[in-house]
Structures are given as structure tokens and as C-alpha cells.
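Continuing from yesterday's entry. The apo prediction looked reasonable, so today I'm repeating it with nicotinamide-adenine-dinucleotide included to see how the binding region is handled. Same sequence as before; SMILES copied from the compound registry.
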Amino acid sequence: MAYGLLNGKRGIITGALDDKSIAWKVALKAKEEGATFTLSNAPIAMRMGAIRDLAEQCEAEIIPADATVVEDIENLYNKSMDALGGKIDFVLHSIGMSPNIRKGRPYHDLNYDWYMKSLDVSALSLHKMLQTAQRMDAINEWGSVVALTYLAAQRTVPFYTDMAEAKSMLESIARSYGYHYGKAKNVRVNTVSQSPTMTTAGSGIGGGFQNFYDFTDKMSPLGNASAEDCADYVITLFSDLTRKVTMQNLFHDGGYSMTAISEEVMQMLQQQ
Ligand SMILES: NC(=O)c1ccc[n+]([C@@H]2O[C@H](COP(=O)([O-])OP(=O)(O)OC[C@H]3O[C@@H](n4cnc5c(N)ncnc54)[C@H](O)[C@@H]3O)[C@@H](O)[C@H]2O)c1
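Holo prediction written out below.
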């Protein structure tokens, strides 16, 4: 059911790689809720082509941008404002990548060049997107920026390796920039800490993703939150209903982050 929560709003949605991507679901919901927006991803992801189907469904222009390159981000804001006919009301940062995870390097054997790449792509890119927006005055007053994060920023998940630091940094940037952008332009910045979700980035995490997914599902009183659930939550954060929410890391995980042990997990252990 649509509520018209984003009627008249203009946005930028990054990170839709395929129909499993959280950003893909956010785009479909944003369209349903009345927004117009552009879609962006790294030029290399464009070649995979799936984003074109989404763009058609959402009547959205695709603007390639490597989120680590400031000139690309400038171009993204300029072209988005041209295409949408004005300044931006919401931005989704749905970007994460760790070469160390891709190449199976454990935490005690990280490659430091790749570590820097993980931080640049997955965390610093949020600062670049915010600083560039503020410099260009590309985001409207009371605009909303949301980045997706994960609980490993607070609690150790051994196979999340350098992405744990990337997510801590991402959340810290959201807090710090949320202060400055809030003061300057009433723009709010939040992170949403999402359950494990079956996407390309999610299932790329080592440790047997399906087992991990089942475990967190059994631990969470409400079960894991799906990508669709996440999209619903993100839409509320883009809407005017959450105008005073900023600088927060918001857990969207069916209660997992506050649960120490569940009956289902106890039963699982007893059955072994
Ligand atoms: N899937 C999960 O379990 C889970 C849980 C919590 C948080 N998250 C976060 O959600 C976000 C979206 O991930 P997803 O699960 O939808 O997976 P996904 O693989 O569909 O999305 C990740 C996106 O990042 C993009 N990207 C990588 N490098 C880039 C660059 N240099 N410039 C621009 N874009 C780049 C990829 O092309 C891809 O579209 C990520 O930040 C991820 O860490 C995912």
C-alpha cells in the first residue's frame, strides 16, 4: 500500500546492482511513494546491465559514478538536479565493497592497500558525497541522507574482517556530518543497521552466509528484516515524518542487536 510519503521529492539512489540489492527495493518503493530520482552505480557495475531494467520501471535516469571519485560525485549531483528539475531531497548511500573479503583474506592477514580501498569505497565515500553536496548546495533544507550499515561496527563478527572498521567509520561520518549539515542546512544524516540480507554484498561475506543468516533469524524475535522491510524503513527516513531524526545509527534487524540468546538457538544447541 502506498501512502504518498515522497510525493514531489527528488532523490539519488546509489547501489542498485540487481533485483536482490537493497537499493533496488528502495527505488521501487520510492517510486511507489511518489518520488522522482536518479540511479547511480560504479561504472563497472553498469556493464552488468540489470540497472537498466530498474531504470525503465522507475522512469529514472542512470548516472554512473564511482563513489570514491569526487568529480564523479559532482557530476552525479549536477546531472541529477538537471534531470529532476531542482535540488535533491534524499540520497541513499548503499555502497560497500572489501577486496580483502572478496579475496578471502582473514582479519589477521589483511592486505593494507585493499584495506584502504575498503574504507574508501565503503565509508569515506559517504563523506565525499556529503561534502560535495554541501559545497554545491545540492540538497534542500530538511533533506535526508541515509547510508546502510551493519552491526559488526559495534559487535565482532569474525568473518566481516575490515568491513567492521569501514562500517564504524561510516556510522561516525554520519554522526559528525549530521551535526555540521544539520546546523548549516537542516539536512539530516542517519545510518540504518540492517539484518544479514541475501544480496551480492551480503552473501559475499565468508563464514557460510546461509548458516549465519539462519542463526540471526533464529536469534531475532521478529526474524531477520528483508530487503523489502529495509526499503520501507528507509522511505520513512526520507519522508517528512522523521524530520527531527538525525545523527543516529538505527537498528533494523528484528530485535537481533538487543537479544543475547533465544529459545530457538538454545534448542538448536541441545539437538546437537
Ligand atoms: N546484505 C547484507 O547482509 C547487508 C547487511 C547490512 C548492511 N548492508 C549494506 O547495504 C549496502 C548495500 O548492499 P547490498 O546488500 O544491497 O549489496 P549489493 O552488492 O547489491 O550492493 C552493493 C553496491 O555497492 C556498489 N559499489 C561498490 N563499489 C562502488 C563504488 N566504488 N562506487 C559506487 N558504488 C559501488 C556495488 O556496485 C553494488 O551496487 C552496503 O553498504 C552493505 O554493506 C548489507
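Comparison notes:
- The chain has a mean pLDDT of 96.
- The first strand starts at residue 10 and ends at 14.
Will overlay with the apo model tomorrow.
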